[in-house]
Amino acid sequence: MEITWNDFEKVELRAGTVLEVLDFPEARKPAYKLRVDFGEYGIRWSSAQITKHYTKEELVGRQIVGVTNFPKKQIANFMSEFLVTGFADENGDIVLTAIEKPVPNGSKLI
């Protein structure tokens, strides 16, 4: 499906730094809860099924890409405030979208 440039501009893909990572045992599939700093867009929580490729310790301080203008979503007993982006590997496990060099938190993908 083809979209217009205006459609793409509506999606807020923003850089944020992971501040905290917690286990999420209530999730149906193994996941973490992430607290991420998006600069002027605030600190937000999300869950991510990224336990196969990442430890909690290596995620703290890492920049990720999140969709920050989706509505909040209830996941088990937790409210997700943004969508963590990534790609499925050959086994269906998620690999995070990478930011090659540090950018300011809240920067929008352009």
Automatic annotation (TrEMBL):
InterPro entries in the record, alphabetically? CsaA, NA-bd_OB-fold, tRNA-bd_dom, Tyrosine-tRNA_ligase_regulator
Say if the entry is tagged with keyword ATP-binding: no
Q: Which UniProt keywords apply?
A: RNA-binding, tRNA-binding
Stretches assigned to the TRNA-binding domain: 7-110
Q: Where are the transmembrane segments?
A: none
Q: Which GO terms describe its molecular function?
A: tRNA binding
Keyword tRNA-binding attached: yes
> According to its UniProt record, what is one Pfam family this protein matches?
tRNA_bind
Q: Which PANTHER family match?
A: TRNA-AMINOACYLATION COFACTOR ARC1 FAMILY MEMBER, TRNA-BINDING DOMAIN-CONTAINING PROTEIN
Q: What is this protein called?
A: tRNA-binding protein
